[in-house]
Every structure is written in structure tokens, then in C-alpha cells.
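Sample 1 of the test manifest.
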Amino acid sequence: MEESIKNYIKNLVRTAIEQSVGTHPSMARRKKYVIANWKMNKNLAESAEFFQKIICNDAVSVVICPPTQLLYPSHLFIKQQSKEIGLGAQNVHWAEKGAYTGETSVSMLQDVGCEYVIIGHSERRQYAAEDDETVCRKVKQAIKAGLIPIICIGESLKQKQLSQTEHVLSAQLSGALKDVTSSRFIVAYEPIWAIGTGQSATAEQAQQIHAFIRSVLTQLLGQNAEDISILYGGSANEKNVADFCSMPDIDGVLVGGASLDPRTFNEMIQLCAKEV
Ligand code: PEP
């Protein structure tokens, strides 16, 4: 049976089960994700070992975002081991092709097996001068081609201290989604003060912000906002992942540091799956 038909049947069955146990239909439709952002880490041998060790769970979608040069080998490792792992890039260019030295286009990513792409990560906003306008151009280009953008938003420590969080997130979202009508994307709420610091938000704090993000998405896209997965990112690990994933508006996690060790990452997948 073709893979797409198998997945279609699997999703139908899952939705029916979730609805029969009384889950809110929009929550049942929403996918849960555990996504790894390896950043600029791992070589070929280390990535092969990682894919060998990873254990998936049908209740959550696992996506790995390796550095660009490891995308194609990662695609081959995933196929070789017949694992249900999605592949994502950490960045993409907004143009179809052309004189953009060092950049990668959407079709190049799809060519090597990518289905997802992280856009607007705070490290790229900081080191590569990305702003809401470039993020928006990239999001549109990705959606047009059928890649799923993982749009990162988040406030700095200073903005949080000045009580500007909602204003910042709302501006980032409306900038990234200017003239976007599709809801085929993921949002990752990644407070900058929590990234790589070991100081995550609490699950309750994150839930409050996620509910706010969903309200902004509803203003922008109407009821389709209920279908958009909103992930938490920022020092998520095996100790706090269950708390995050148990919240009604937190549809999984985007994981940096803790995704590098396959044992920790496996644990996170299983813990998040239990909360679905
Ligand atoms: C990230 O940068 O996307 C991230 C979530 O990092 P960490 O988990 O290491 O805080």
C-alpha cells in the first residue's frame, strides 16, 4: 500500500479514537511534534549513529533538523531504517534560484528529502540579520512549494522585563504572516532568554503565552488557527517535557541542546507521547 494512503488511514483512525474519548475536535486534529534543532553540531558518523538509535512513537511526529550538509545523508539513513522521521532544514532562501552565494533554495531542500524548514530562529535574527520581512518572504516561498515552515518567535529578556512580550510576539506573527492565507505551518514560541540557558519558562507561563499566540493566529487566519501546532522551545529537556506537552495549547517541543543525545531525545519523545 502506498505510504500516503497508509498515513491517511492512520490519521483517520487516530482522529476517530480521539473524538470517541471526548477530546476537543480541534485538539484532536492538531499534530504533536518533537523536533530536534541540531544547530551547527554533529558530523556524518555521529548523525548515522543518532538515526540508528532513535525510537519513534506513533503518538507524536518526530522531525530532525540537521545542518545543511547532513540533510541528504540523513534522508538516506531515515529511508534505510524505515523510520517515521520527518526531515527539516534550519534555514532557506526566499528566492527560487540565482546569485545568492552560500544559500539554499526550497527546491534544493525538497530534492534532498526535506518536508520542514525552521524559519526566523532567534540565532539567525541575531547573526544573519533576519527580520520579520525576510521571515515572511521565506515563509511564503516555503508554503508555495509545500514545505512546512516552523516559524520561530520569541521575546528577549529585556523585552520580557519591560512587559513587552505580547506586543513583540504579535508584531513578529503579523510580520511573518503578512498576506499569508494558508494555515499549513508550525509556530515555535522560543523565548530568547530560555534558549541554551537552562532556564526554561514554566509550563504554566508557556501555556498562557501559547493561548495568546493562538488568539493572534485566530485574528489573522480565523478558525483555521485551531489546527496550527504551537511548540515550545527553550531549554526543554527530559525533566520538563511532560509538563509542557500536557498543556492544552502546547503541541510539542522544539529542542536544541537536549536533542543531541539520542538517549535523552528518545526519552523526550516517549514522555511527550504519553501526554497526547
Ligand atoms: C533552539 O535554539 O531552538 C532551542 C530550543 O535550544 P535549547 O533547547 O538548547 O534551548
